[in-house]
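Pipeline run #58 for the internal structure catalog. This entry was flagged by the ingest filter as a single-chain record with no existing model, so it goes straight to prediction. Upstream metadata was stripped on purpose; only the residue string is passed forward. Reviewer on rotation: M.T. Logging verbosity set to normal.
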Amino acid sequence: MNDGGALQGEQRRREDTNLQPAWNDVFPKLTAFRQSLVIIAAAELGYFDVVSDLESVADISKRLNVSEVGASVIVNALSALGMVEEAAGYYKVRPDIARLFTPNSGHDIRYNIVALKKEVEVWSRMAGIMRGDSERDLEYSRELFDGGIKKFEGLGLLNRIDAEQILPHIVPHVQPRFNVLDIGGGEGYYAKRLCELTPVERVDILDIRTGFSISEEVNANALTGGRVRHIPGDARDFEVAAQYDVVLMNELLELFREDEKYRILENALSALKAGGFLVVTKFPLNPEGTGPGRFPLFSVRMHMKFEEAFLESDKVIVDWLVARGIEVVDIVRLNRTLMIFQKPRG
């Protein structure tokens, strides 16, 4: 009996040892939310309001109105995450990261960080939302709408970086007297840069009525001169004659369910002249939907924001357009997937 118990104990120890690699793999993924919440809490407490000074734990405690123990554990956690440097008991945000917290700079990410608290709350109800037992959060779904995107300076920074990588591939297709339609381009950055870089006749931006707040600022002169126009409308429902030489869609389709994606593509093709170019940029996703990198999680994010929305694979768009006789001109893999298509001439 004792021998049997010893044997069972040995089997359990071997099983535990064999399971350790799997648990070591799962555990960091399971607890990654702790890192996010430490950064969110630090932003809420105002830690990132002062990023250039060396501070002791006592200094931080006083400034954040928390105990010295609380100040110590959070600043040490930030140090462990590589965001804060420590020397002889004094702490300072790492200089390159500190630049991301510069007020009125156009790249202050503090609002982006604090806004993620809403995402944490919504995602904690993910199972209920998927079953239909819990409602999607309208504030979360519309956080970038109605001018809200102006608050997300970190997102604006990334969008500009991506645009500058993509624009060199678009510019050669924009000839003198060309008219361009940017569907969902209410930020106006592509319109602004195309007016600066090409002899485009006019860029029309189609977006929801409250979506033009940034473009109104960055394209003020071009709007006055008529080189840029704002067209309020819904990408799913707009109808326009085939009058555009180039139609752009930048990170748009993932906001919609499957049938709406195809309706938007049909509307884009209808707006395009024969021989015109359709330019689609999107977050990359392989045909299986399993990669690359973080983009399957981005698809979950879209699903939590909008009913039945998801990030479609690159192949889905290519196959759908090719089946309708649209020619693939180029596919470029950057931070985003850039796809350029051409409508037949006759």
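catalog note: The domain at 158-342 is CATH 3.40.50.150 (Rossmann fold).
catalog note: The chain has a mean pLDDT of 96.
status: ready for reviewer M.T.
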